[in-house]
Amino acid sequence: MKRQRQKKRFIGVVFVSTVGFVLALLAYRFTVNAPVFQGEDGYSLYVRDTSSTVEEVFQPLMDQALVPHPRWFKVLLALKGNPQARRGHYILHGGVGMLQVIRMLQYGYEDPIWLRMGGYQTRDQIAAQWAALFDYPLDSATKALEKDLGFEHVVPNSYQVYWSYSPSAIVERLQREHRVFWTETRKAKAARLNLSPEEVVVLASIVQAETKQPDELGRVAGLYLTRLKMGKRLEADPTAVYAYKQRYPNAGIIRRVTGKITGMDHPYNTYRQSGLPPGALATVEPDVLDAVLDAKPSGEVYMCADPQRPGYHVFARSYAEHLRNSARYHQSLNRRGIRR
Fold first, then answer.
1. Which of 91, 151, 180, 219 is least crowded, fewest Cβ atoms below 10 Å from its Cβ?
2. How distant, in Å, are the alpha carbons of 122, 265, 271 from that of 246?
3. What are phi and psi of 132, to 5 degrees?
4. Domain assignment of residue 203, yes or no
């Protein structure tokens, strides 16, 4: 009889424990671990105002009925002291629970975003991109680019960064990527050209602006390297156009480089200034940098746009040959009525 009572008591304890455990799981599932967001796709939540509490950040979502259990969420927030939310980017989806999202925002466990640093971008374009993407004041982005990050230290690529990064943190990230790109092998190639890595970027920015044809990059680079070695001015049209647009930013599209443009006195105009310009014209794609590093000068000193193959150039070793090429090109411009 006693043994039967003990058995019943044991079964009762097991039953109560099981029921309690199931109830605890249900309570956890529908309170602490209940999904904080309902929607088919992930939702990017940006916290800008660091004085806001987690409840204040989520109030617009609750107003739109995007939080499945708003009452339980508010109860849990109250139990956690309704902490302040840290600036950042957070992705919400059905798999993120209430307690998890509170911790995410409280401690700044944000989700990364992609920062695309493209080629052919000017400093002003990058500053505007950063200001729009990271919600920075434009002047702070411009200052970081001008003073903290040399324009020649930007290696175009896509980088995972955090939205809460300050301009100086972005600069540090890009500086780190620049150091990774400039391996000892690439530095040795630059040294063989008698150029520093920064000077390679400056030269490559001219080559990149001069031709968009991958099979012509090395040849154009070789021409400019020959001119540098000979002590001749580069006389590169992209530098003259860059200088002209710096002085006349509303000049519009320039389809013909005239004497008015090449004759302008400006530090970037290599028709008037010897050597490389003081900085890169734009960000430079890595494949262009490698084409410059691998360039093998062949003695060509002059080039002119090829009227027979748009986008390509004809090259010459003598000035007389160049004049003939140039005359054919300018005749083609005249026939098409391109005066500017």
1. 180
2. 11, 12, 16
3. -75, -40
4. yes
Residue 326 and residue 303 in contact, taking contact as beta carbons nearer than 8 Å: no
**Same domain as 189, residue 274:** yes
| CA 54 to mean position of chain CA atoms | 30
> Do residues 54 and 79 touch, judged by C-beta distance below 8 A?
no
Count of structural domains within the chain:
3
- Asked if residue 139 belongs to a domain, the reply is yes
Report pLDDT digits (tens) over 250-296: 888 888 888 999 999 999 999 999 999 999 999 999 999 999 999 99
pLDDT, residue 340, reads: 60
Q: Measuring CA to CA, how many Å separate 13 from each of 1, 2, 22, 81, 181?
A: 19, 17, 14, 36, 66
Q: Give residue for tokens 């002119």.
A: 304
Q: Is 112 left (phi over 0), alpha (psi -120 to 50) or beta?
A: beta
Predicted structure pTM score: 0.80
Say if residues 301 and 317 touch (Cβ distance below 8 Å): yes
Q: Are residues 224 and 297 in the same domain?
A: yes
C-beta of residue 130 within 8 angstroms of C-beta of residue 169: no
Range of the domain at 97: 30-107
CA distance 150 to 162: 22
